[in-house]
Write a structure and sequence with these properties.
single chain, 197 residues, alpha+beta, 4-stranded antiparallel beta sheet, 10 helices, 4 strands, 8% strand, globular, disordered N terminus
Amino acid sequence: MEQQTSLLVENILYIKNVVCPRCIRIIWEQLTLLGIPVVQVSLGQAELSRPLLAVEKETLKSALEEYGFSLLEDRKSRLVEQVKNLLIDVIYYRHGKVTCNYSTYLSNSLGKNYGTISHAFSSEESTTIEKYAILLRVEYIKAQLEYDELSLSEIATRLQYSSLSHLSKQFKGVTGITPSEYKKVLPKSRRPLNMLI
């Protein structure tokens, strides 16, 4: 009984698959429904005003699993999820705008050597951070092509591609077709961000 009521050490929860504002809202709602005092929810994590009780943690795990989320408990998995969320934030919500390259950005944001970050990511995901970032950019391009609100040139500028031909080459390398061919393809082949790798 003592183990059930004891406090867990952290008041920051790392949560897998929180990749968009809707996910953030679901996490917030679940924490609130369970009476867990939440301070803030962001991509991949939730800050609580106090550490969870062990029994609360188990209840929360079950509630999150119903929505396709899970708590990340080991450091390596947390680091990999933080990398994914930082890249999603930059590409989807800040439109690729960082003043340095992604390796420097990740290293500065996480306070770790890029070699350590890269090794953890590659060993956990069986791909590189660079390839993952390309997949994110391509999915962003697909979404913009489907919305049909921006020209390809505007998309290239927004994502800070060096040229339109670089965007097209990268897009074709991932999808096998050019962006203009993609616009003609039905049904579209976008993938959820949490299922890219």
